[in-house]
Amino acid sequence: MALTFKGGLHIPDFKLTAKLPVIDLPGDKLHYFPITQHKGAPLKALVKTGDHVRVGQKIADAEEFVAAPVHSSVSGTVKDVCPHVNSIGIKTETIVVENDMKYETAENLRPVEDISALTTREMLWVIRDAGIIGLGGAGFPTHVKLNPPKQVEFLIINGAECEPYITSDHRRMLENPEEIIDGAGILSKLLGVKKCYIGIEANKRDAIDTLRREVRFNSGIEIMKLKTKYPQGAEKQLIKAITGRNVPTGKIPADVGVVVINVDTVYNVWRAFRKGIPVIDRIVTVSGDAVNKPANFRVPLGVTVSYMIEKAGGFKAPPQKVIIGGPMMGFAQYTTDTPVAKTTSAVIALLEAQPTYDPDMPCIRCGKCVSNCPMGLMPNHLNKAALDRDIDAALRFNIIECIECGLCSYTCPAKKNMLQNIAAFKPMAMKAARRGSTSGK
Ligand code: SF4
Ligand code: SF4
């Protein structure tokens, strides 16, 4: 039986690239590294224009613990440190490296010889030094997540990949099962958990079978089949499906005894310990009906969207929309100059921009947004509160719990752009809640 949570919806998955093995792409002439790619303390560039850099060399870091350094994926010369567009459409400080195509590696990239000899603190620093963050899209530094305020019982590895089109985690599980299971063992030791679960949606039967074969002699790890339903990979929904536990409002997974780590993040933890390699590349799904040859590419970080589109045979016709990430939670792009950063799991190009919204259509009270909301919220009321800028109402209807999955907008027959309105108003409501004041009208 496939496990799941209440609410959510099975949506067409358009996994066009599920059966396509990962293709390694070489680097491009210029690589763009946004200096800060994680959620946490901002980084500072460690290099300047004219410096020579090597593959795996740290090029940006911060003194704070809640930060993850950035490493060069190529060798060459720093051409500039300047503002450049990032995946959310903002110009952000970026290190531009001219690739000399020699791929000389930094001298300090060494595997850990005896992991069992390391203390927990030392293990966390290995992960921090490798620049590992939530690669499923969350972007939170992994070493911070792995340092919970209390002892946890379970490690859950997130292999759900519930967004349409994206198959980068799916391919990772099929092509690196041994590394993932070894990485899961390293993390289980670090956290001292009773059990590790790997949650995978039922539509990835081949990944479930592959990983089950890999863990057959390991009783500490169990592969859990999850119902194919969006947003099955959201943290709270995954925890509910696998453990039956609810993470209360304002609490974190560790409060219910769980730490959740994305499956590609686990692979990168494995690589940091066993090979000494930091986060310098990633698998990116390039897909959508506007792309000539959809593919899964492994690319050195810093190549642009246009470079990958060209390698995927270019566009069939000018796309209406190009999205970084999935179509439900990703970011629409106004340029293809955007570089691949650590959390760029996919580039989706669509001939028709779906869905369309109509701000003037009235709510017909069908209740679809309410019954599908995975957080049990009333999106229709939240939408009204956001449009009225009514902080009291927004907090009463628990806007803080909205995970911005977009299902309310997706299902609304009145074409209300609820996600956009709710997400735009949420920071103001949360700020007011923190101040204890709700007079925000
Ligand atoms: S975007 Fe928020 S309100 Fe809308 S369905 Fe998702 S969790 Fe519910
Ligand atoms: S889905 Fe749209 S039309 Fe239906 S109740 Fe919600 S807001 Fe109203």
Describe this structure in words.
It is a single chain. The protein is an alpha/beta fold. Among the domains are: 160 residues, NADH-ubiquinone oxidoreductase 51kDa subunit (Rossmann fold, 3-Layer(aba) Sandwich), CATH 3.40.50; 68 residues, no CATH class. It is built from 13 helices and 17 strands. Strand 5 and strand 6 form a beta hairpin. It is globular, with a radius of gyration of 22 Å. The protein starts with 22 loop residues before the first strand and ends in a 6-residue tail after the last helix. The mean pLDDT is 95. The structure holds iron/sulfur cluster (2 copies).
Give the % helix: 25-40%
Total E-strand runs: 17
Beta fraction: 15-25%
What is the straight-line distance between the termini?
48 Å
Overall mean pLDDT stands at 95
Question: Which stretches of 5+ consecutive residues score pLDDT under 50?
Answer: none
Most strands sheet:
6 strands, mixed
Spell out the CATH superfamily of the domain at 115-274.
NADH-ubiquinone oxidoreductase 51kDa subunit
Note the run of SSEs as H and E: EEEEEEEEHHEHHEHEHEHEEHEEEHHHHH
Task: Give the spatial strand order of the biggest sheet.
Answer: 1-14-13-17-15-16
**Rounded to an integer, what's the Rg over CA atoms?**
22 Å
Quaternary state of the chains: single chain
Report the principal-axis shape. Answer: globular
Task: Using the coordinates shown, work out and report the CATH topology of the domain at 115-274.
Answer: Rossmann fold
Task: Name the structural class.
Answer: alpha/beta
Could you say which small molecules are bound to this protein?
Answer: iron/sulfur cluster
